Amino acid sequence: MEPNYTIPNSTATNSRLELVSNNDGLDQSFQSQKSYNSSNDSFMEYSQQYLMTKHSGNFRYRPSSKRSRRRLVYKNGEMNIAHANIKKRRQRFLADIFTTLVDIKWRWNLLIFTMGFIVSWLIFAFIWWLICFSHQDFQNFGRPDWKPCVANVKDFTTALLFSIETQHTIGYGFRFTTPNCPEAILVMMLQSCCGVIIQALMTGLVFAKLSRPKKRAETLMFSKNAVICKRNGELSLMFRVGDMRKSHIVEAHIRVMMITKKLTKEGEIIPLYQEELELDLPDGKLFLVWPIIVEHKIDANSPFWDISAIDLHSQQFELIAVLEGIVESTGMTTQARTSYLPEEVLWGHRFERLVTYQRENGEYQINYARFHATVPQDVPQHSAKELAELASTVSSNDKLNVHHEIDEDEDTETISYRSHSPVEGRIMANGEAQTYESNHKHNSDRDVIINM
């Protein structure tokens, strides 16, 4: 037979929660009438019923008028940060030219790649033209007795063609240098060296940009939402991470930081205060072979300790998750990021199961179609702090108030107590510990007499 609970609503202190009931106070609600007929009902069953009754009462929720905090980190991991008013910014970036070239967008890389070769061709074409012009090869072009510096170069166009052939060692054989001009031999040697250097730099730049571990983060997945649910009897904040590739991330570890506004004791306001959340992982390390649910237990050290379901969406914070590890195929370190705003944290949900065993081929299959899917869970709307206080209150109220009334008869001891739940305890009689257990039906307003 199901127990019957009669518990009044309480008035919440939150300004956004307006309860209809006029009765308030946690102690008063726990000291009110409650009767039940089954002696095997546990404390957890009663307290959960109380919590669900309390928050399922008649109330009106008024959404917060505050706007949500704009993201610092987008869902794809890009930063929403712009640097301004930096002195000597160009000089600083040019001092580390290679990193600057790797970080810029592809269209600028392709432009620099193309212009690097074209400019070098034009510069050396002009040098070849000057050599031929100073040696008067243009005026004597076509004379059979004339020995030019560069054969078959008669204008700037042919000088440009010879520059391209020399720098890339094409070697058509129609235009070539002669031993009549030592300066032409020196320029040919210089252009050959410059051509190799430019080509090596441009090739290295493109290779470095293509092999950046940043692109490896594109196949690392974070769940769209974080959830708050109960696990092992405690409220926990969770989100899911996964890797779509068969090549794994070695030494993967994850950190979660809460960005919020903080007021110091001196009155200083820190607008972007970072607080790292403690995760239920050894040193934050992950064995990321299949999708893993990252868990943060909401305890007294957690910033979510006094945040209830009603308060959650009125908070101003951003959770930033950073996953780092070594790419197995390249040995380079990669980093993936994402963030969660208060409206992206689902209270009373848990993640759906992904892994199934296939009997046909004996493999474990991961269904990424349900990677972001969540299912509802019956979770009290209280904060973890309120739940702890309620549990402490119920525990203290369930203690027996034992009143000893010793009769003149030494063999009889009358014990009067008021109980709210099945009791199991110890009393001392005649200097010896005797164990007793009450399994009788009782009521909170009736005294039970035990004669020993």
From TrEMBL:
Membrane topology: Multi-pass membrane protein
Family indicated by similarity: Belongs to the inward rectifier-type potassium channel (TC 1.A.2.1) family.
Major subcellular site: membrane
InterPro entries referenced in this protein's UniProt entry, alphabetically: Ig_E-set, IRK_C, K_chnl_inward-rec_Kir, K_chnl_inward-rec_Kir_cyto, Kir_TM
Biological process according to GO: potassium ion import across plasma membrane; regulation of monoatomic ion transmembrane transport
Protein name: Uncharacterized protein
Keyword Magnesium on entry: no
Organism annotation: Owenia fusiformis
GO cellular component labels: monoatomic ion channel complex; plasma membrane
Catalytic activity: K(+)(in) = K(+)(out)
PANTHER family for the chain: INWARD RECTIFIER POTASSIUM CHANNEL, INWARDLY RECTIFYING POTASSIUM CHANNEL 1, ISOFORM F
Keywords: Ion channel, Ion transport, Membrane, Potassium, Potassium transport, Transmembrane, Transmembrane helix, Transport, Voltage-gated channel
Origin: domain of life: Eukaryota
A single GO molecular function term of this UniProt record: inward rectifier potassium channel activity
Pfam families (alphabetical): IRK (PF01007), IRK_C (PF17655)
UniProt-annotated location(s): Membrane
